[in-house]
Write a structure and sequence with these properties.
Number of strands: 2
Strand order of the largest sheet: 1-2
Strand content: 5-15%
Distance between the termini: 39 Å
Number of helices: 2
Radius of gyration: 17 Å
Oligomer: single chain
Order of helices and strands: EHEH
Shape: extended
Largest sheet: 2 strands, parallel
Structural class: alpha+beta
């Protein structure tokens, strides 16, 4: 367990990555899995490079880094996820 003091928060960096930079069909995986070697687009390739750089910087000059890989990020003003889910529910193709 990592104990953080009150002055530690200035030295923490969270990088919000993406799950699709890893190999597909992951079951019981952990952080030791390798990154994918081929990407569907340049953004995926770039996100892998940035995540690797962020994690490499961990514990350099007291900096603590973390990569978070959410499957979907959405919120107010989202024009993709919510409409997609609503259309799937209306179409009858998705179990709701």
């Amino acid at each position: 367990m990592l104990m953080l003091g009150p002055d530690t928060w200035d030295n923490i960096m969270y990088y919000v990555a993406t799950w699709n930079q890893l190999l597909k069909d992951i079951h019981s995986g952990d952080e030791s899995l390798p990154y994918a070697s081929k990407f569907d687009n340049m953004l995926g390739d770039l996100k892998v490079q940035v995540e690797a750089l962020a994690l490499f910087a961990n514990d350099v000059d007291g900096l603590l880094t973390c990569a978070i890989r959410p499957s979907n990020v959405f919120g107010p003003g989202d024009a993709e996820i919510i409409p997609f889910l609503a259309n799937q529910a209306k179409s009858g193709w998705a179990k709701v």
